[in-house]
């Protein structure tokens, strides 16, 4: 059993979608959970209630991932509330898809702030509070490997940055037994990319298995990396994309 009983995890952007599925799965494996959310307090409260129904403690922290001070504060509040921090899942993300000529400076700045700076700031803050043997896991994207449509230049660039960050942090923190990995989901059935959306049939055709993932399937890989069975896996990027990039 890849249990993490008695540990604490912070999942950024954990109020819905993949983040909520990750938070619930880690709770089911024994961890107390903090999540961050930006706007939807009601959805965050629902996720907290689901976590608490497993018997674990839960905390929702409002934080805009584009604000480094709020990111640092979320890490500190998690560690202070639960008395420890063992797992950080950098899930909060900004999804901007547009033709190159139409990208605005504001879109570029926010995407890079949320998808690149925030994971680095969170990792920096977490490393100072994290127990030896901790885990840092990023949520990347399959478009770091294969771009099926035009318009992904900004988003792909931001998620590709996580790969270099993951490898460098794995090297830097490995002496403390802290592993750092990135999971690349493919098409996943969420509100932002529903399996019955207008492009769903086309997207399914790019996968080897012919379907979308459910958030719980991505969460299962994150949970594996968070547990003791993955103690020798670090600096890795793992696709959970149904063969999209095969």
TrEMBL record:
<keyword id="KW-0560">Oxidoreductase</keyword>
<comment type="similarity">
    <text>Belongs to the short-chain dehydrogenases/reductases (SDR) family.</text>
</comment>
<dbReference type="InterPro" id="IPR036291">
    <property type="entry name" value="NAD(P)-bd_dom_sf"/>
</dbReference>
<dbReference type="InterPro" id="IPR057326">
    <property type="entry name" value="KR_dom"/>
</dbReference>
<feature type="domain" description="Ketoreductase">
    <location>
        <begin position="7"/>
        <end position="188"/>
    </location>
</feature>
<dbReference type="GO" id="GO:0016491">
    <property type="term" value="F:oxidoreductase activity"/>
</dbReference>
<dbReference type="Pfam" id="PF13561">
    <property type="entry name" value="adh_short_C2"/>
</dbReference>
<dbReference type="InterPro" id="IPR002347">
    <property type="entry name" value="SDR_fam"/>
</dbReference>
<dbReference type="InterPro" id="IPR020904">
    <property type="entry name" value="Sc_DH/Rdtase_CS"/>
</dbReference>
<protein>
    <submittedName>
        <fullName>SDR family oxidoreductase</fullName>
    </submittedName>
</protein>
């Amino acid at each position: 059993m890849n249990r993490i009983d008695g540990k604490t995890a912070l999942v950024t952007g954990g109020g819905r979608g993949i983040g909520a599925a990750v938070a619930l799965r880690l709770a089911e494996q024994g961890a107390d959970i903090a999540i961050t959310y930006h706007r939807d307090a009601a959805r965050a409260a629902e996720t907290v209630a689901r976590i608490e129904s497993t018997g674990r403690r839960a905390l929702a922290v409002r934080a805009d991932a584009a604000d480094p001070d709020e990111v640092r504060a979320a890490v500190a509040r998690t560690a202070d509330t639960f008395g420890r921090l063992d797992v950080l899942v950098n899930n909060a993300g900004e999804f901007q898809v547009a033709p190159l000529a139409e990208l605005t400076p504001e879109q570029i700045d926010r995407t890079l702030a949320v998808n690149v700076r925030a994971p680095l700031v969170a990792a920096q803050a977490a490393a100072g509070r994290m127990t030896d043997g901790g885990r840092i896991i990023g949520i990347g994207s399959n478009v770091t490997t294969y771009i099926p449509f035009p318009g992904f230049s900004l988003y792909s660039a931001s998620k590709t940055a996580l790969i270099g960050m993951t490898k460098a942090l794995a090297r830097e923190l490995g002496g403390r037994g802290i592993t750092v990995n990135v999971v690349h989901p493919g098409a996943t059935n969420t509100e932002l990319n529903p399996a019955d959306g207008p492009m769903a049939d086309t997207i399914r055709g790019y996968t080897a298995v012919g379907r979308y993932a459910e958030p719980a399937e991505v969460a299962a890989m994150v949970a594996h990396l968070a547990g003791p069975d993955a103690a020798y896996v670090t600096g890795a990027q793992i696709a959970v994309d149904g063969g999209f990039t095969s």
